[in-house]
Design goal:
The chain is mostly helical and 73 residues long. It has 2 domains: 35 residues, no CATH class; 36 residues, no CATH class. Helices cover 62% and strands 0% of the residues. The chain is elongated. The model has no long low-confidence stretch (mean pLDDT 89).
Length: 73
């Protein structure tokens, strides 16, 4: 299919979307996320946790271990 035609078809479908979550997801795929939607308190918490993770101080578990814990094994 022609790329220009594909873009027109996608745009036509997007024009009919009323689902806010879906529009937000599309914006994310296009790199149009608005970081301003995150409060300063949440951003500070995320930054602190990311720094802990990068410094090796974060308490993490593997996906396998997390699944085992959830299954009570």
């Amino acid at each position: 299919m022609n790329i220009e035609l594909e873009k027109k078809l996608i745009i036509a479908e997007i024009n009919h979307i009323d689902d806010e979550w879906l529009l937000t997801a599309i914006k994310g795929l296009l790199g149009m996320n608005d970081v301003a939607d995150i409060s300063d308190a949440h951003k500070s918490t995320l930054d602190a946790r990311l720094e802990e993770y990068n410094n090796g101080a974060a308490r993490t578990v593997s996906l396998v271990e997390a699944k085992m814990r959830l299954l009570g094994r």
